[in-house]
Amino acid sequence: MKKVFLGITLLIVFILGFSASEILVIKVQTTALRTEPRFFASVKSLLTFGDQMEKVGFQEGWYQVKTLRGVSGWVHSSAVQPRPSKLAALTQGPRAQPTASEVALASKGFNRQVESAYRKRHPEIDYSWVDRMLSFKADQAAIEKFLREGRLGEWKEVK
C-alpha cells in the first residue's frame, strides 16, 4: 500500500511540475538558439516560426530554453511569446485558438482580410519585393564589425 501511495504521489508531483513549466513559441520566421545570452554567441540550432520550447530561465532580455528535441540554449525575448492557453478554447469552442499565420499577421497589425483589401486598393504595388527582401541574408561577421565600430548593441559601452 505504501508503494502505491508513493507511486501516485510521485506521479502527481511529476504532472504538476510538467504543467507548471512555461511553454514559449517562436513568433518570427527564424531565429537562433544560442550558447550564451548574446546576439553573437555561437548558434546551436535554428528555430522556426511555431517551434515550441520550455522556459528554463530568464536573463536581461534572453530566455534560457530547452527545445522539444532536448537542446538547451538561449533565445532573445523579441523572438518568442508565451503559448496561448488551451483552457480558453475549451470554453469558447473549437475555433477559439488562432492559426500560426493569423498570429504572425496580427503581430504586424494585419489579418487576411486587411491584407486582401490593401492589395485590392493598391494593385500598382509589386509584392514580389517583399519576398526578395526576406531572401536577403546579412553576413554575421560584417554585422558584428559594424556594431563594434559604431559601439552599438552589446558594444554600446566600451569594455
Q: Topology of this protein?
A:
Layout: H1 2-20, E1 23-26, E2 30-34, E3 43-48, E4 52-59, E5 62-67, E6 72-76, E7 80-82, H2 87-92, H3 100-107, H4 112-121, H5 128-135, H6 140-149
What does this structure look like?
The protein has 159 residues and is α+β, with helices and mostly antiparallel strands. The chain has a domain at 2-83: SH3 Domains (SH3 type barrels). The protein contains 6 helices and 7 strands. It has helices at 2-20, 87-92, 100-107, 112-121, 128-135, 140-149, and strands at 23-26, 30-34, 43-48, 52-59, 62-67, 72-76, 80-82. Strand 2 and strand 3 form a beta hairpin. It is flat and about 70 Å long. The model is unreliable at 87-93 (pLDDT under 50).
Largest sheet: 5 strands, antiparallel
Instruction: Please state roughly what percent of the residues sit in beta strands, choosing from under 5%, 5-15%, 15-25%, 25-35%, 35-45% or over 45%.
Output: 15-25%
Q: Give the overall shape.
A: flat
Name the poorly predicted regions. Answer: 87-93
**Which class do the helix and strand fractions yield?**
alpha+beta
What's this model, at a glance?
The protein is of the alpha+beta class.
Which descriptors apply to this entry?
159 residues, SH3 type barrels, five-stranded antiparallel beta sheet, two-stranded antiparallel ribbon, 7 strands
